[in-house]
Amino acid sequence: MTVIIPAGAGPPEGHGLLNGFGELRGGNLGVRLAVSAAEIDAAQALRYHVFYDEMGAVPSEDAARTHRDADAYDAVSDHLLVLDHALGTGPESVVGCYRLIRRSAADLIGRFYSADEYDISTLLSFPGDIMELGRSCVHAGYRGRAAMQLLWRGIAAYIFLHRIDLMFGCASLPGTEPDGIAAELTYLYHNHLAPPAVRPRALDSRYVDMRRLDPASLDPRRTLVGLPPLIKGYLRLGGFVGDGAVIDRQFNTTDVAVIVKTDLITDKYYRHYERQMRDALE
Questions:
Q1: What is the DSSP string of 30-46?
Q2: Are strands 29-33 and 253-261 parallel, antiparallel or unpaired?
Q3: C-beta neighbour count of 281 within 10 angstroms
Q4: Is 84 helix (H, G, I), strand (E, B) or coil?
Q5: CA atoms within 13 A on the CB side of 127
Q6: How far apart are the C-alpha atoms of 167 and 182, rounded to whole Å?
Q7: How far apart are CA 66 and CA 30, in angstroms?
């Protein structure tokens, strides 16, 4: 069961999630926005541990010195955190994170992070509010269903409160050899390609064709099961992929652009949070 802890009974109010309603809780775990520089630092430390220590990303000199995964976008982002309250109430409790960048925040930098890999002009021209998701990771000890469910519920609440119409980001498959994940790339292209009106395309200089196999040769069910959990999560929300993959050698991954029109997120989410937020105000 997930409940909303009123702001007065929980951590101090952040600058985005739930607008003072507090955090979403499920047992010892909770999800809310970072409310201090120390909590953002803890998220950056977790990102470094997962991306560099576990996944083999190549750190810059600054990252290797600080053991932090950090960039200019962190200063304008909302940082969604999963907290284990059994570990404490502050930075020491951070066990998961997701970075959220709204259009107004990206305007402060002058671009979205994804623009380094994709032509996102179709998304920028989308008439509603848009949001980029990225830098998602969970500590190895918490990679079960509970933490990921809380992250998705936190994102759904954020979308509801800020009236986000479309969300997108770069999702990663492991490795930098496209032929090693040919089935996954081919499956995504032929089964989940975004409509032209919202379809990003990999930049010409980085474009890797996703059509690597005869789609008739695939076992769609088996291929879907083998996709990374994050990509499967986007697809369950009705998500699409862009045209072309991108090799990210620094992070030792092959990226695909993922797009979710939030009106495809089930009415159940909206009814659930509307009811909980109404109850929290009464």
A1: EEEE--SHHHHHHHHHH
A2: unpaired
A3: 8
A4: strand
A5: 1
A6: 26
A7: 27
* Model confidence at 22: pLDDT above 80: no
Residue 176: Cβ within 10 Å count: 16
Distance between CA atoms of residues 254 and 245, nearest Å = 7
Is the Cβ–Cβ distance between 168 and 130 less than 8 Å? yes
Confidence of residue 263 (pLDDT cuts 50, 70, 90): confident
> Between helices 145-162 and 267-281, what is the axis angle to 10°?
80
Instruction: Write b or e for each residue in 30-55: b if 16 or more Cβ atoms lie within 10 A of its Cβ, otherwise e.
Output: bbbbbbeeebbbbbbbbbbbbbbeee
Q: What is the mean pLDDT of residues 30-54?
A: 96
Average pLDDT estimate for 224-245? 93
Instruction: Name residue, tokens 């809380």.
Output: 150
Phi, psi angle pair for 267, to nearest 5°: -60, -25
Q: Is 188 helix (H, G, I), strand (E, B) or coil?
A: helix
pTM as predicted = 0.86
* Per-residue pLDDT, 255: 98
Q: Rounded distance, CA 216 to CA 228, Å?
A: 22
- Residue range 3-281 forms a domain whose CATH class is alpha beta
pLDDT of res. 275:
59
Q: Which residue's structure tokens are 């990921």?
A: 148
6 has pLDDT over 90: no
**Domains of the chain: which residue ranges?**
3-281
Q: Residue 39: what pLDDT? A: 96
Compute, in degrees rounded to 10, the torsion defined by CA atoms 109, 36, 21, 107: 0
Nearest to 82 by CA among 165, 9, 176, 17: 17
Q: What is the pLDDT of residues 175-206, one digit of tens each?
A: 999 999 999 999 999 999 999 999 999 999 99
